[in-house]
Amino acid sequence: MDSTTDGDTTDSDTADGEATDGEVILRGVLDRWKAAVDAHRPQLAAAQFTEDAIFQGLRPHSVGRPGIAAYYDSQPIGLTAEYRILETRRPADDLVLGYLSVDFSFTDRPTLTVNLGVLLRRSAQDWHIGYYQVSRPG
Predict the structure, then answer these.
(1) The pTM is what?
(2) Tens digits of per-residue pLDDT, 20-68?
(3) Pairing outcome for strands 49-56 and 95-105
(4) Which of 98, 84, 123 is nearest to 8 (CA)?
(5) Are 118 and 128 within 8 A, CB to CB?
(6) Interatomic CA distance for residues 103 and 111, integer angstroms
(7) Which residue in 100, 133, 112, 121 sits closest to 48, CA to CA?
(8) Burial class (CB within 10 angstroms; exposed 0-12, middle 13-18, buried 19+) of 4
(9) Tens digits of per-residue pLDDT, 110-133?
(10) Contact 55, 68 (CB under 8 A)
């Protein structure tokens, strides 16, 4: 792993193309999140977040699982998400930072591509999203 100038550890793909520990952790959580979004299961999507998660979709932010569940409940049936991990970092043993590109596809309008920044935090039980920030590219 390479070190960045600010002391964080880079956790991108290795030279031989194998996934790093941070990417494996990120994919585990995001695959569960994606399955819940694709199935329009807002409570299950919200369960992928910490109890006190800061969530910023494309509307005003919320804090905590109830606001996250309400956000996903308001999304149209048929919405699906495809993500691509662009960067990962491990600023601490119990944290994984991810930067992604996500395509949200709809049944009745064009696909929306967004940038997504997430910070995963490990609890005693599992990894969960503690911070989620969507922005439109460019």
Answers:
(1) 0.86
(2) 899 999 999 999 999 999 999 999 999 999 999 999 999 999 999 999 9
(3) unpaired
(4) 98
(5) no
(6) 6
(7) 121
(8) exposed
(9) 999 999 999 999 988 899 999 999
(10) yes
